Amino acid sequence: MKRIAIQGVKGCFHHAAVSRYFEGCHYQLMECSSFRDLANSVAKSNVDIGVMAIENTIAGTILTNYSLLSEYNLRIVGEVYMPIQHHLMALPGYKVKDIKEIYSHPMAILQCESFIEAHPNIKISKYSDTAAAAKYISQCNKKKGLAAIASEDAAKEYGLEILYKNIQTIARNFTRFFVIKNFSKKENNFNKASLSFKILHTTGSLSQILSLISNLGINMTKIQSIPIIQRPWEYSFYVDIIFNNIKDYEMMKERIQKIPCLHQFSIMGEYKNGIIKS
């Protein structure tokens, strides 16, 4: 039975991502209070696999998670896209007019800005995880008027009633999750890769690398820059590419490392492109 680490508790979106990616498999879930705890658990082999959110179509990229992947030298072995539907929930018997305070994860709060702005009298409190917020208010009988923003699974898991469905600002809201390990054997069946590199701070250095990828007919689906700490105005770059021909990919790896402006280059993972489905 696989041991899989997630950030959050049962009923959270990480849990849903695990269920989708490992559908039909038996696994043991390890709940982590933070992304660093998740990364550390995978790095120390306390678990077999980790599932970590990396970006959302509304809130954008979780930059710190790229840094954690690099810091702990973790390998990306897969990805899964999850549709994210946020619901307002409370203990049975409550109405929206009774709610005085809403708890949820900062990312979920950001994704539900329009709903929150329409209810200015309700206090918004940040919590470590959406499902953990649902769990908290399910156990908090002394304090009245509490609600959480979380998933339908969380409402079922913790015995809450949904007061408002689908309160996310944009209906088609997806989060991309990485499946990570602390090492991985060489796979032959892959068509996507995540790259990391640093370049010299010179004119045209980035364009040389991007032109090489483009000229080989490789599709670059994402580029993300992250500032290098203690080196102002210099950046690490994270790039995702998809390719149909493995020979083109191998040629790219060979040629890219010969570019003079390249300071550091690594393959963060080689895996199958995830399918986006509702």
Mean pLDDT across the residues is 93
For the record, the count of structural domains works out to: 3
Head-to-tail CA distance between termini: 28 Å
Which fold name fills CATH's third level, the topology of the largest domain?
D-Maltodextrin-Binding Protein, domain 2
CATH superfamily of the largest domain: Periplasmic binding protein-like II
The proportion of residues in beta strands is: 25-35%
Give your account of this protein's structure.
- There is one protein chain.
- This protein has 278 residues and is of the alpha/beta class.
- The protein has nine helices and 15 strands.
- The protein has three domains: 91 residues, D-Maltodextrin-Binding Protein, domain 2 (3-Layer(aba) Sandwich), CATH 3.40.190; 78 residues, D-Maltodextrin-Binding Protein, domain 2; 80 residues, Alpha-Beta Plaits (2-Layer Sandwich).
- Strands 1, 2, 3, 4, 5 and 11 form a six-stranded mixed sheet that branches. Strands 8-7-9-6-10 form a five-stranded mixed sheet. A four-stranded antiparallel sheet has the order 13-14-12-15.
- Strand 1, helix 1 and strand 2 form a beta-alpha-beta unit.
- The radius of gyration is 21 Å and the shape is elongated.
- The model has no long low-confidence stretch (mean pLDDT 93).
